[in-house]
Amino acid sequence: MKITYLGTAASEGLPAPFCTCEVCRRAREAGGKSVRTRSQALVDESLLIDFPPDTYLHWLRTPFDFLKVTDLLVTHSHMDHWYPDDVQSVVPPYGHHDPSYTLTLHGNERVIQMLEEGMAREEPQILETVPRKVAKAFETFTAGDYQVTPLPADHCYTEKALFYLIEKGDKALLYAHDTGYFLDPVWEYLASRKDLRLGLVSLDCTHGWDENRQNHMGFTVDAQVRDRLVELGRGDGDTLFVCNHFSHNGGGTYEEQAARAKELGLLVSYDGLTLEF
């Protein structure tokens, strides 16, 4: 299994428009890995996680075949994770392709509602090309070759925000954004999964150097999550633990973030990074 980080920033991107803070200024000067677009990831070639307004840019910068993507997992309805207007490209006259192609959308009720209400007005035929399935916490479903278990996030209390455990054969990925320190029911579920060994864990790092455990996480809390997963036997010395989803409010250039993560035995994502496990 492999993951490609197409975008690795929080909602405002990094650097952020209209912002004159020191972090954004230094990110612009540094360029390269310090410049981050809104978060999105591709698992192998067929499973896309989130659909932000930077999706088109991601496709241009890190080319992948959209027609090989069969399933889309959306974590929640915040704009930086779900921009449904751009999904209209899946139908003519915006996109011409094999008419049998479908892209199955998995998300909470609000995510599904936003697509259905928006497209019903603009491009109702999209609803035939994009089947919708409501994802519910702890209810495992099949998405192509994968078994996916949604987990409840500590985030966004106006809807049931989710993050995802993705399994294929003996490989497993935990993609944990946007969430604070995992809720007790999540830990109970993971403790019960004695058959599970995680190959890669992607952890929210919006708070950066701040040790706040709510709504998002930072470096210190990511290390605490890592330690507890290892204690439970869900991770080990071969598991990749990756800090991802960065904000200017969390501080640091890529080099500074990578140095802090290294101190804690963690990795740091950047736009375009691919990891196999």
From TrEMBL:
Domain of life: Bacteria
Name of a matching Pfam family: Lactamase_B_2
Gene3D superfamilies in UniProt: Ribonuclease Z/Hydroxyacylglutathione hydrolase-like (3.60.15.10)
Domain Metallo-beta-lactamase: 68-191
InterPro entries with a match to the protein in the record: Metallo-B-lactamas (IPR001279), RibonucZ/Hydroxyglut_hydro (IPR036866)
Protein name: Metallo-beta-lactamase domain-containing protein
Organism: Candidatus Acutalibacter pullistercoris
